[in-house]
């Protein structure tokens, strides 16, 4: 058990300031302490704004010497409090927001090397500028940073085809908890030279080091895309449709998103100007985005697929976008759902994944379990192709979230117990952060937890890196 | 530094025998101690043949209690001595050869759960039996076992499209060095519940635990395949062809293999009955295997690709298989090269990877460096799409390997120094084993090595798991 940490106080800061250029340290702004859902307010003795990996190393070295906690900070978009330390000795935030450079680009190799502070949308743009695709795409792409995406192993809408953030990364550079720099920016497709520290740091949410740069995989963009919104017969129908689509378009399904009726109802209430294709909305629908190679006529292929699915009784209505604008309009519906949810105000949100085959039964049982706790509304949507649902529970119509705060723990327990019982994960794409530490202890495999703690103690014996995230301190 | 280990002697074995069914322990056979290239002979006090994960746990627990080394043994096909402990206190071999069951199959989810001792070809067959593809494919697939493939993060011929072994694995069950069982057989596409121990154990070559079972990803098999052997203008031409193929057939190139002229010359000498399509063979050629979806006429697509490549000056000759038998014949040429190499007898073999763009310059410089050491012949072939070459050096024509043994270290140093200087890896797909421990120390990032040692000490404080593999003991 490491000794308690000291706060990031004036004495520490004055010593650290001597080691850094003049404008590297400052007071944290509100944006450094808030988080998207407004649940917790962080605290910090200061925010460090390094410009180079060497400066990050100096900062971590000094923090280690002084036993001061370090909270790595990317875009501040995390949804599980991984970037928000609300209690304990005030840490030093280390924001990578000044480290936004492209280090190198190799279009012929499909490799882009960037610093960790680059905004995800800028990474996408840098890939597009050389005619390539960087497929990581998620709601906060305009403000999240690639280092945070990797630290959290972000998911998003294109995982089905291209994988999670870890699958898009060939190598990382990072500052380890003792301040040494891990030089791992290789751009190799095969490298079995020792333990894969890249994959260990990716998804460790800043508790084993600070990722400072990454070699990323780029892909040829599909020659043609086609998007459709299809009304399906329940979750079973959606899964059968996914299976059919996988056979007809192997490796070409860029996204396969489930939308429950409540999502459309919320959009109608919160964003009445957003044009909806169905009236009334179907109970369940699927947004499917195909990225096709040259040689396949995209709209015709989607139309033929719709006909086949309709004949098989898998879909009962649908619209196929016939222009980029229409495709963007269908995507806007899907992407607006989290915003609408925030306006309505969830009592409890769940980022869960399940084995694909278990999804229909899970939804039946989860709906029943929630209904047993009160007249709640459920908005369930998400990345069906990945078995990853956002199963969010809202107050009854006309009810206010504040009146149901007391139900949150019971709701969460009911949903998470069921996910665990059905071999799922209660931390699918958002990570553990600080909000799911107890869930990990409750549901995690004991051997895995013991190994995680041993690794944390081995690499960060002082416990300075993102204290209290993923694993409990003290 | 852990204390020295004790040998697996009669006293230990008699105590262990009390904990296991009667026929679980025996003397190792020659196959347990030999390795494919005949370079080293292993030693072992006994071989354990558990039937269940629980028995593996009992064995590891007992070994930990007695400070006896454990060498996990799969198919014995490793090429870097990872399964061969030639010196030190005699270890206990733990062979998974009796653990060959399918635990579960979920065709609709594309998931197969198997025990670690299943032969790779049987895994492929189990996938095919439900209409799916398990794409890991390599020369030893008839005898290697999936647990060993995962422990070594095997590569093979389909990495370009489907990834390395680690990319094909959703979850693992393993026995950790203290004998606890890691229950991680989830079949989820997104699971960010804590550190990714799966990726840490995969590629750790049995030094952090014994993989006992795995959830594997299955894919829809391509509707049509087409194979061609194309003569290219040097490695630059091969890379340009790869780039063009990637644009024309994104995500559909199952394999892209480089073959140097020496490969065909060796085949002509060693296997004169094998029909070769070119006379004389081209200096450089590429075997390309496209797996295409329904809707693309495979042979016509390859023919059009050939015409485009020829007009661009990238290829100057070629054959396109027009039947499965012809496709198999082309593949047989590629797959027979390692066998021919063994008959000729390499002085030094190198499993290396480089950034794709660096390959042509590497080959120029490596050939010059080898020529400076003597009149050697180089047979260079491999997985160009992954930047992974087998760069093997042979005695001059008429020379015998035995006369050049003294040159091996200098050859190896010349090639590996160059690989390292050009940002490559000297352990691309075969791993580190015991033969490349010193290379890892020499070329590895110091921060990475220190972290690896810390992780090893944390998870295996007694140093019993595959002692001396990957990391030096004592």
Q: Give me the oligomer status.
A: homodimer
Number of DSSP strand runs of chain A: 16
**Distance between the ends of chain A:** 6 Å
Query: Uncertain runs of chain A with pLDDT below 50, 5 residues or more?
Result: none
Number of helices of chain A: 15
Please tell me how large the radius of gyration of chain A is. 23 Å
Physical arrangement of strands within the biggest beta sheet of chain A: 13-10-12-11-15-16-14
Structural class of the helices, strands and pairings of chain A?
A: alpha+beta
For the sheet with most strands of chain A, the description reads:
7 strands, antiparallel
How much helix is in the residues of chain A?
A: 25-40%
Shape of chain A: globular
Provide the residue-averaged pLDDT of chain A.
96
The two chains with the largest interface, and their residue counts, are: A-B, 95 and 95 residues
β-sheet strand percentage of chain A: 15-25%
